[in-house]
Amino acid sequence: MSENRYCYKYPHPSVTADCVIFGFDGVSIKVLLIQRGIEPFKGMWAFPGGFMQIDETVEECARRELEEETGLKNASVEQFYTFSDVNRDPRERVITVAHYALVRLSEVKGGDDAASAQWFAESEIPSLAFDHDRILRMARNCLKERICFEPIGFELLPEVFTMSELQNLYEAILEVKFDRRNFYNKMLKLGILTEAEPRAEQASRRTPTKYRFNAAKYAELKQKGFRLEF
Amino acid sequence: MSENRYCYKYPHPSVTADCVIFGFDGVSIKVLLIQRGIEPFKGMWAFPGGFMQIDETVEECARRELEEETGLKNASVEQFYTFSDVNRDPRERVITVAHYALVRLSEVKGGDDAASAQWFAESEIPSLAFDHDRILRMARNCLKERICFEPIGFELLPEVFTMSELQNLYEAILEVKFDRRNFYNKMLKLGILTEAEPRAEQASRRTPTKYRFNAAKYAELKQKGFRLEF
DNA sequence: ATATCATTGCGTTAATTTTACGCAAAGGTA
DNA sequence: TACCTTTGCGTAAAATTAACGCAATGATAT
Asked: What is the pLDDT of residues B202-215, one digit of tens each?
C-alpha cells in the first residue's frame, strides 16, 4: 500500500500550490480559509492548497485544489511568490508556490461542500498554519500594489455597483481615505466605467448612479500603458 | 553508482533556480549567459542556474549556482516567477524558480573561471535553451517595473557616475527618451543623489558633476512611500 | 588657428494634474 | 418639523510635469 515507487538519485522536495482568496463585503477585505482536518497543524486555519501532481502546472494545481476545497470554479489565480524555507513543513521538504485570487463573496457560500471554508475579516484572522501568516502579509501587499496598475477591484464587486462602493473598496485595500468628489472625478475621467442603467429620469439625488466596469475601454487604456494613481 | 536511493509514494518534480543577470555598459542593457556543455540543449546559451539541494532555499540555490558558474559572489538575487510547464525540460519534470540580479559589469569578467560565461547586449541574445526566452521576457519586464519604485539602477552603475550616465541607464531600461534638463531636475529634487567630489573649484562646464547614490536619504524616502515617476 | 558642434549647468514659462473645498437637492432620521 | 447624510456637479488654488532658452566650455573638424 505505502510502497515508495518513485525513486530518484537525489532527494526531491514536494511542491504545493496555496491560494490566498480575497473577497469584499462592502466594508472590509475578507480572506477565505480552510480549517485543517489532519496533522500537522490540525484544527488550525490555512489557505486552500495542496500537492502538485506530476502532470499539471502549479497554476492548474492551485485551481484544482481551490475547487476541491471550496467549490470555487475557474477562479483566475495568479502566483506571486514561492516559499522555500527548509523547515516550513514539519513532515518533509515542501516548497509552495503561493497564489492569490479575487472573488465575489456571492461565489462562495462559506461552509459549503468544503469541510469548513470560511470567510474572515482581516482583523479577525487567527494565527495560521505553516508559514501562512507570512504568505498572507505578502499577498496583501501584492493586492495593494496591483490595484494601482490594474482595476482588479472590479472582480471583488458585484457586476453593478455605485461609486461609493468602489471608493470603499479602494480605501479598504489601500488603507487610506479619499475625498469623495476627487475620487469620483478621477474614476470618471479614466473612462473605464459605464453607467449601468440609463438612470431613472426622475433621478433623485439620493439614489446613486449605478456603474459597471467597461472592459473594452480598459483594454484600450492598458495598451497605451497607463497607471491608476492614488 | 546510479542507485536511486530517494523514494517517494508519489512522483516529485525536480526544482531548479535560474538567474537572469543584468548589467549595463553605459549604452545598453546586457545579460550574462552560460553556454551549455551537456545535453539537453548542448551548445546553446542559457541562464546560470541548477538543481536545488534539499537543505537550501531557492534563493540560496540561485546564489550558489551563480557563484559556481560565473564566479559572482553574494549577488542580491530576487525571485520573480516560477515556471512549471509540464514539458519545459525534456529529461524529467522540472519546475524552476526564476530570479534576477543586477550587477556591475566590472564584477564579472566574461569567460572567467566559469566555463563560458559571457555578456550579451540585448539585441545580440540568441535563441536560448529550455523556456529561457520566455523567462528573459518576464525578467526584462520586472526590471522595467521595478525601476519605477526603487532606484535599482544604482546597482548597475559604478559607485560614482554622472547624470548623463544615469539618464542613459533609465532610458535603456525603460526604452524611452527623456528631456535631459527635466531628468536632471527630477533626480536632484528626489534628493537621493549626493555630489561625489566637492567638485573642482574651477568647475569647467564641460566636466560633468559626479554623483553617488545616497542610500540613507533613499531609505528615508521609502518609508514615506514614494514612487519614481517616469 | 578658427569655425563648428556637442555637452553641461541653470533657468523660465505654459500646460496639466492634483488637491481642497463649496453648494444645493433629496431623502432619511430624530 | 428640524437636522443630518448622501449624491451630483463645480471651481479655484497649489503643485507637478513638459517644453524649451541660453551661455560657457571643451572637443572636433577643417
From this structure: 556 678 999 999 99
Check CB contact of B176 with chain A, cutoff 8 Å: no
Pairing of strands B14-24, B94-102: parallel
CATH number, domain containing residue A121:
3.90.79.10
Domains held by chain B: number = 2
Q: What is the CA A76 to C1' C13 distance in angstroms?
A: 49
Joined together, the cell numbers standing for residue A128 give 495560521
A81 in contact with chain B, both atoms CB, cutoff 8 A? yes
Residue A228: inside a domain, yes or no? no
Burial profile B205-223: b = 16 or more Cβ within 10 angstroms, e = fewer: eeeeebbbbbeeebeebee
The per-residue pLDDT for range A150-204, each reduced to its tens digit, is: 888 899 999 999 999 999 999 999 999 999 999 999 999 999 999 987 655 555 6
Q: Do A9 and B15 touch (CB under 8 A)?
A: no
- Identify nearest nucleotide to residue B178 by CA to C1′ distance: D18
